[in-house]
Amino acid sequence: MCCALLGGSLCTAETVVTTNDGRVIRGIALSKESVTDETCLRLPGGITSTIRRSEIKTVEQAVSADYIGRRIKEVPLDYAEALIDVALDRNTEEAEIKEIARTFWMRTAKNAVLAGEVGKALSLYSKILTLFPGNSEAAAGLDTCTSALHKLEREGEGLRVHLTENPDNDLARFDLARVYERMDKPDLAFAEYQRIIKGKLAFNGGIDRIGELRDLISESLVETVPVLPKTPSLRGQNSVGPWMTAETKRFLIRFHRGASIDNLAGCAEDALDKCLEAFGNALPQELEIPRMVLHLYATEKEYRAETFEPTASALCRTPSNLYAYEGTPRLLSSALPHEIMHLVTHHVAGNVPLWVDEGLAIRQEAVANLHFARLKQLVVEGKSLSLKEVLTETRSRLARRSKTGHDAFYAASFVLTEFLIDKHEIRGLLEFVQSVHKNGLATEVKRHYGYSSVEELEDEWLEYIMY
Ligand SMILES: [Zn+2]
């Protein structure tokens, strides 16, 4: 380990760290001090990571304006924004960096205007004017945004008056939250969204409607990110409301203040790759999976209070949402891959029977094979389900089953899926379930797998379980 480098000052914008195990990490050092026992790096995608002195091999520093100008085109927007702020703050090649900042802020402001994010655009134009007081383009932008902001304020005022007389009008409240978002007041927007959810609980306990609203709210969050705190940083710092956010290539991670997302981003990306791989040649060439949203609550209590779900859960709507809490049993190794597989299955194959949906999801769990042993035991005890019961199971019937019945269904779904995939891969399985829907089980069991009857399939399946 090189002590001279570790003791050096991290006074530049981007820092490249080589860890002892050979990983190269680029990030913005969040403290101006030299590397202390723990140094926090902000990584592209808004994620922060703590690097311990003992983990670092070398530290290189990227200084030049030329480098920064190139880098901001490669990284996500919020990271680029932070990169520029830090570079300006540290006064390296001042004139060049200022010019880069002006171009970047101008472009970002124009995009914000197009997206209706008036408050955000306004603060960017103000930033330009601080550096370049006479800039006429920024001054004109600021004027436009100021009058748009006044209009939003009036709209918000109108909605607030309406809501004092009609507190149950969720649509109006939703509009008000959107107005706050556009004004770049995420904390106020969040409070309104919370009120909508709480109202539903108090007035009719309509769990289904909460589910819908929850999705609607998530959609709005994805479209108009400002409801989320703009500077995800260290746990619990600078956050607005209980939610913080981080982005990876294919996930948006929303986490409750206090929850830790260490490893979550990497595991989610990995799990998604493995889920896609699992489909093999059944994967359509033109598959587009929209960015998934992972919601991580800090505690099981908060999670249950808002979702009403017993364990981790996935909702296959647009955007695809996945809910979990810190401490979800086997979150990274099993629950996360399981739920991600539900989302992928939905995109690849659309609606599939429950046993296929669960069977495919369980196959992605690190502990999948435990289901094999459990099923064997249930068969011996005479507590397993018949093949017909497995094939025709529905969510509502499953919800009424005992704990043993529950186990029996999940274990049987996994083993049956595995058994059929052994024969004709996933592609064969998906074709099978599609044609069963049209032509019935008896016909397709014969055509796809060569059995004379459903009973014959059941016999061979039982043999597969027991030996
Ligand atoms: Zn599942």
Describe the structure.
The longest helix has 37 residues, at 403-439. Among the domains are: 1-90, SH3 type barrels (Roll); 351-467, no CATH class. The radius of gyration is 27 Å and the shape is elongated. The protein has helices at 3-7, 65-74, 77-89, 94-114, 118-131, 136-165, 170-182, 186-203, 207-223, 264-278, 300-307, 331-349, 354-363, 370-380, 387-391, 395-400, 403-439, 441-449, 454-466; strands spanning 14-19, 24-29, 38-42, 48-52, 56-62, 243-247, 251-256, 292-297, 313-315, 321-325. A five-stranded antiparallel sheet has the order 4-3-2-1-5, with helices on one face. Helices cover 59% and strands 12% of the residues. The N and C termini lie far apart (55 Å). With 467 residues, the chain is of the alpha+beta class. The chain binds zinc ion. Zinc ion (ZN) is lined by residues 338, 342, 358, 361.
Key descriptive features of the protein:
19 helices, elongated, 467 residues, binds zinc ion, disordered N terminus, alpha+beta, five-stranded mixed beta sheet, five-stranded antiparallel beta sheet, SH3 type barrels
Task: Note the topology.
Elements: H1 3-7, E1 14-19, E2 24-29, E3 38-42, E4 48-52, E5 56-62, H2 65-74, H3 77-89, H4 94-114, H5 118-131, H6 136-165, H7 170-182, H8 186-203, H9 207-223, E6 243-247, E7 251-256, H10 264-278, E8 292-297, H11 300-307, E9 313-315, E10 321-325, H12 331-349, H13 354-363, H14 370-380, H15 387-391, H16 395-400, H17 403-439, H18 441-449, H19 454-466
Parallel strand pairs: 7-8, 8-10
Antiparallel strand pairs: 1-2, 1-5, 2-3, 3-4, 6-7, 9-10
Helix pairs in contact: 2-3, 3-4, 4-5, 5-6, 6-7, 7-8, 8-9, 10-12, 12-13, 13-17, 14-17, 17-18
Bound molecules: zinc ion.
Zinc ion binds near residues 338, 342 and 358.
